[in-house]
Amino acid sequence: MTKIRVALIEDHDLTRVGIRTALLQKKDEIEVVGEAANAIEGMKMLKLLQPDIAIIDIGLPDKDGIELTREVKSVDSGEELATKVLILTLRDNKEAVLAAFAAGADSYCMKDIKFDNLLEAVRVTYNGNAWIDPAIARIVLQQAQQNPHNPELVSSDTKLPANSPDYMDEREVIDPYTLTERELEVLQLIVEGCSNAVIAERLYITVGTVKTHVRNILNKLCADDRTQAAVRALRSGLVG
Q: How far apart are CA 216 and CA 183, in angstroms?
């Protein structure tokens, strides 16, 4: 079996070690080929090891992770790497999100992401698709909608991954009556990036009930995962 070769560039030791030991090294399909705590060492490592995916933190001490992403994806240097970039960050503001994609990031995850979701993000990114955290899907979608005739461009210098889920020229039309009132409430919280536990707490229901609602929502929206469901819900106007 071909393994997914992953490199970690993260200055916070606990976070870096946690991702490596608690998640990546426990999966036979993944091989952690290297680690770095800053951008300079990280770039050297990427050039040397040529991993499939680099998980890069935005807040590196010597250079912004977005600038590092730009270097990794740069064609001007003549050293363009085939490595895909998965941004991992606490920053969910519009400027950081769009700057990351403008720099060429393939996927974008928040640091409070569950390990299972991070693993899924790695797999999706490796397969050539974009994984966008539901918490920031609204930002990406709004920018894409501003350029309906060219969904790859959100501004003159900001490119979104062409294979991101559901960036289509036409707005999706989904009958709001397809979902129950409770399912719409759960969907709204999914779009806001809430976990099942948080949804259960806010709606005063059990986690098991939340999981049932989520499963029904995915089926009704023909979505493969929560991220795709969030994007489709926003595109169709099911939630605001």
A: 8
The strand pairing partners of 35, in sequence order, are 8
Q: What is the residue-level pLDDT of the chain in tens, covering all 240 positions? A: 689 999 999 998 888 888 888 666 677 888 889 999 999 999 999 999 999 999 999 989 998 899 999 999 884 445 556 899 999 888 777 778 888 888 888 888 888 888 888 888 898 899 888 888 877 776 766 665 555 444 443 433 333 444 444 443 334 455 656 889 999 999 888 877 788 888 999 999 999 999 999 999 989 888 877 777 877 777 777 776
User: What's the rounded Cα separation, in Å, for the pair 139 and 160?
Assistant: 11
pTM of the shown model:
0.64
CATH top class, domain 4-131: alpha beta
Domain ranges of the chain: 4-131, 176-236
Report, at the CATH architecture level, how domain 176-236 is classified: Orthogonal Bundle (1.10)
Rounded Cα distance, 200 and 116, in Å: 19
β strands within the chain, DSSP E: 4-9, 30-36, 53-57, 84-89, 107-110
